[in-house]
Queue: 2 jobs
Job 1
Amino acid sequence: MKGQTLEMLGFLILSVTVIGIIIFMRTYLAGSYGNTLLSLTERQETEGMRSGLNTILQTTDPKTGRKMEELIGISSYTEKVKKGDKIDFGPGIGEVDILTMLEERFNGIYGEGKWYLKVPPADKFFTQIVIVVDTSASLCDDVDNIKSSLPKIIQDLSEEYDITATIYMLPGADSSCCKKTGYGGYDLTCDLFEGKLTDNLQCMSINSLDCVGNMLPQNEEDWGRGLGCIIQKGPPQGWNEKSTKIGIILSDELSGGNDDSGEELYYNMASLEIGKKKAEEIGMYVFPIKTETGRKICPGCDCPNYPECSCAPNICVYYQNQQYPVFSKIQCKMDGILYSQMKRIAEPTEGDVYELSGSGEATKSILEIIKRVEAEEREKRSIKLGIPPPKNKKINTETLTIPIPLIGKYTNIYLYQWS
Amino acid sequence: MKGQISYVMKPMTMIAVIILLVFLLQSLYLNRGKETQAEKKLDIVGTGTNILLILANSKDCLAYDYQQTMEKANILDAAKLDSFSNDYQAVEPECARNYDFGWRAEVKEIGESGIENEWTFGTGDFSSGKSLNNEVNFWIPVAIRYSENDIRLGKMDIRLVDGELEKLAGFLDWSCKMGQINRMTSSSTDIRTSYPVTYNSQENKICVGDSCRKLQCRLRYFDGFDSDGIHTLNVEFKQPDILLVGG
């Protein structure tokens, strides 16, 4: 019995060894050539795509005699970024539709629907920002936040972007609720920013713009009219036609001020319309920032009267860890109307309403707005051809730098290709 | 009982071991076949890629010769294309000759209305039927330069064939070339053919079955092979372009 067991065991060992040898040979010997062939094929695909892009960029346009890489640069710089946009090369040559021509060439090499090309703009993001500030007492905490954080943010951004920002203070009111240290008060004026202003960040009283007629802001909350006035007069550097214009409004009341009736009145609508119309005329993004109205702190808008402040009768707002009664119950209850009014100026100007829930969020929101507009503008000003890459395919990618002859800069071409 | 079991088990184990060893040998044989096939495929793909790159980027081939400016990849000279198209209708150009495979290239200029111009060059005929071992087709994008301000888009396709005709003609052309550059005057090889081989001395063409190729050197004392099979070829070069062939 023992001998038979050993015989069986010997046979088993032999079988396992033979099977092991066969598996090893199949996996490693023939497999190695297969793998090399696969990697060679993959390399051919990648090199083929790269070479296709290089080749297309070296070809010339029959009308202008210029190379495609040069024409893409011109197209990017002149912001003719859509198929069908024509660039006029003057008498003798005429108009050229660069992107349609480029699309035909890519289709010829890679096949229709099998590639996607993106060329972001080469120049820095150039923006002119105006910030309209409601100067009523309830904005003390937000202005304080801007004063302490915005200068550094603008300074930092100026290294990356071509940026200027101007803070405009609406006609000041008595803001004695703004306390520096427990007692006494100060008004919300540009004096607060003394020592913090630079060439990139300035502050102006809106009254110094000398707007007249229906452009003249009527009170410390008249931000619609205030925005119209700023747009009409322009920032200290004047409007530059190539800049991206951003208007930021900082307020907790309807444009022109809340009425005790709790309704949006004609003058509120009129003020808003002026700002909206002017913003649309100049192509400005408007981002109203709705500061704390008391709704989030006291959802029922029913806070106890607080006797220390002269701005009574109000509900609670926190400033420097103390409760200050600077909002009437009506103002708190108009929170929803204010939001819808702000939406009415934001939506047609491609902006958005930002709602703050605390005093430290004003600058953070301004930074978010700048970054968001920058991303949107880059997207808008990017050349995009072909169809976006599908998710279920293996995508080959290639990035190539091309010159922009008109400004002596460079930009990247991103190519995505699949089979 | 114990003895009886042992009496049955031993022959059974022996048969099982023999079956196992036969399976191992068969597997070894199949594996070697697969390995050879993969190696050949890799070889032909690699060669095809190299030929295309040489054609497109070598100044001796089709690449535009930039005298002063930086060199760019895959820019073909339209004048060279015309010249290749005239000179190399039956043989591959010397700058990208391969002695193991035969190839023919086609350059197409792509314009708004589709293909606007076309050039072809390389060998005119390939192995076919049983004498064809393998073939690949692929292409690369190229730019075709007419002048500094007129560079057009194109594609260069290549058909690369591994066959008995290509091997036979490749050996004869290689021997001729080695003789012409004084590297080697005689050489020999074993060639397997699936069809009879004929030589047309008038046109200096060698044929395997119905497929023919033009040779670089003229052959002496060679009438072909009347049957298929493995043939031994001994050749000796004589200046300026003669190969003396012996069996």
Job 2
Amino acid sequence: MSDITQSAPVAAPRSVRGQQWLQHVSLLIIVLVLAVFAWLSPIFLTVMNLGNVLQQTAVVGTLALGLTLVLSGGGLQGITGGIDLSIAANLGLSAAVFASQLNAGQPIAIALLLTLLTGAAVGLFNALAIVWLGILPLLATLTSMNIAIGLEMVLTSNASVSASSDLQNLLLGNGPLAVSWLGWSFLLLAFGVIALSRLTSFGLRLQAVGSHPQAANAAGIGVKRYQGLSYVLCGVSAAIAAIASVSLLSGSSPGANDNLLMVIAAALLGVVFSRRLVPTLGGALISALFLSLIANGFQLINVSSYWINGVEGVLILLVVALTALLRRRQSRRTQGV
Amino acid sequence: MSDSLLSPVAPRPRQTGWLRAIIVLTFVALLVFFIVAAPAFATVSNIRSVLLNNVAPLAIVALAMTLVTRIGAIDLSVGTAIDIACLVLVTLVLHQVSLPVALFAALIAALLVGVFNAFLVTQLGVEPFLATLGTLFIGQSVQQLSSNGGQPVYLLSQKLPDGFSAIGHGALLGIPLPLWLLLLVALALYQLLHRSATGRSLRVMGEQYSVAQHSGVPVKRLTALAFILAALIAGIVGLILAANVKAWVPLSGNAYLLNAIGASFIGATFAPSRRPNVLGTLLGVVLLSFIANGLLLVGWNFYWQQVATGGLIFIVLAVGALRARRHS
């Protein structure tokens, strides 16, 4: 790469104050939005509604966590950076596998195993195409998205497949605080993944690989291995989300790919909650919850759900434009020093 | 902004003609297979229908995409420009506005999508991928809100102004109008991209962005130009769609996105420079369209076609990437 400074947004100590300002403002916006919803609808801040939101976030939230791994490992250089556009199509394919296995009367263990294998296989396909063949992530995953959508339609003839199992009933059943076990499982998964990425060297190394591949390579980190692994893990996250989705919908249904934009939005909005302005797992969790809360709030105060896409679009643009502005200011300062 | 789309180092290719030969042979073999297995494939009426209904709209979108990919960016919102142009045209025709005014307004609406993208990318410094993704999101909301969640708006055929359906079905010198439009767009874009000083600057931006910037190329202005022109060209497809279907079907433009990107990169794989270019894109569109048509005629269902098309694009991309790796 000719321009190392662009691929490596190294934080300058002086600019930390500027970034914290962004974090404070975004937190303030979240609190404000929630306050408005709470003021307009008495149901909004009840435990039951919040539990409901948590459960609704499980699918997109899990995908956003997976996508965050890919974004951290692949770097944020826009078109050449890490991205997995096949993640929502993979969700659809994995959900179709899970539902059709259950529908065919297979034992739950086999259905679960095949689902996880499907998700991981799509992830492995991406990993090989990107790391081994060297195809741009954007193009490679755009293709695997198409293939996964096609395979899902072949498998289900583009129709819904109903499925029922004890696992689904258990997940939808209420746990403590009248929050479903699905909601609790999602929280457990999210915190588990966040803890793992903080306690082990994996998370740090993955970020190193993404933000400065040459430096990571020089430090003895297997750049290709980490990047490949991030795509496989992303595929597995799609399979886990598929299990949640099949539970919520009592089966699989076409159109899972519609989740793609929401997932990208959640993963990217997470950037605001990191001091170095990079995607983080915790940030992705908060933004996924925030996006669900907006959707839920709109529903409660009777605003058409057709606004949601637009609001998300504006939010993404706002965040990315602010981030770009702060980065520019940052690099100007570092150059000035 | 990233330096280049394909690979930062792009010397002239050497000794990898055989990789390109593999792709060409594969496609030739496929075509021979279709001709043998499906008697209807190589008929004049089939070829004419594919050229008119599949190649023309896809090629125009793919050319719009080529303009943007050539400068090292991407436009995910070409579908939005298509839909918005279609929406404006159908709405105005429905309200008895005269056809030239409606067509003009529709193209202006598509152009505004490009202006919005250009503003985000050049003024706010948002990455093209994210900027156009945002535009795509907002476009979806706008369409859902103005169609009550995606209800198509139909035009009754008896109330249509003269010449409306001619946009989709009319012919000049025996050649359908959409193909004339395609020819016009292709020639204009070829002239701009490959035969003008502006084009040379655009191409340099795609290969070495910072070099272009430091050599005094007005990178911002040219980036804006690329996004605005791309949206305008995509808008033409919206007009053709409106005239063909005699309706506005919300969110239908996105169907072209993957194939447009695919065609532009298939074209890049064939070119000696390994960059998206006008002729390569046209070739890519022809290949994609006839393969989909052939698969349909030999009896593959739509679902498998999707898998097969994805697989073929993948093979081409893989060969392109392998070639690029051998050079660096």
